[in-house]
Design goal:
Length: about 140
């Protein structure tokens, strides 16, 4: 510890006056956009040029959890547990090798979580993880 008082961290009154005077003199060069302002055209161009803008799901209205492993386009399959917060990932090739192409992702994900679940109470209704497929 030092014997230095806490006042050494604060500017002196003369320095504070100088800083206050300098704030009013600086002119702002560019105004930052607010929520009510229109978005710049570059923003909309980048949105429309994004290749995902025209992407359509193979089956509209179908959740990824209802798809079979062979129908899922992602290479990495990810789900989390709403109960313990764990995240489990598996490569699609490994999931197909272990569970088959016709396996439904919902069932595969539940099995992956249940195989390594740290939450065991002994009651069937409360045991296991609660899968959250989210935006996988």
């Amino acid at each position: 510890m030092t014997d230095r008082p806490a006042s050494w961290r604060m500017p002196t009154p003369k320095q504070m006056e100088k800083l206050a005077a300098a704030v009013g003199r600086e002119a702002r060069t560019a105004r930052s956009p607010g929520p009510a302002d229109a978005m710049p055209p570059e923003y909309w161009e980048s949105i429309l040029k994004d290749p995902r803008a025209d992407a359509r799901p193979d089956r509209p209205g179908t959740s990824i959890r209802a798809l079979r492993l062979a129908e899922i386009p992602q290479h990495i399959l990810r789900l989390s547990c709403s109960r313990c917060g764990r995240i489990v990932e598996i490569q699609k090739a490994d999931a197909v090798r272990l569970y088959g192409q016709a396996a439904v992702w919902k069932d595969v994900g539940q099995r992956l979580l249940d195989n390594t679940c740290p939450v065991r109470t002994g009651r069937h209704e409360e045991d296991g993880c609660w899968p959250n497929f989210g935006n996988t």
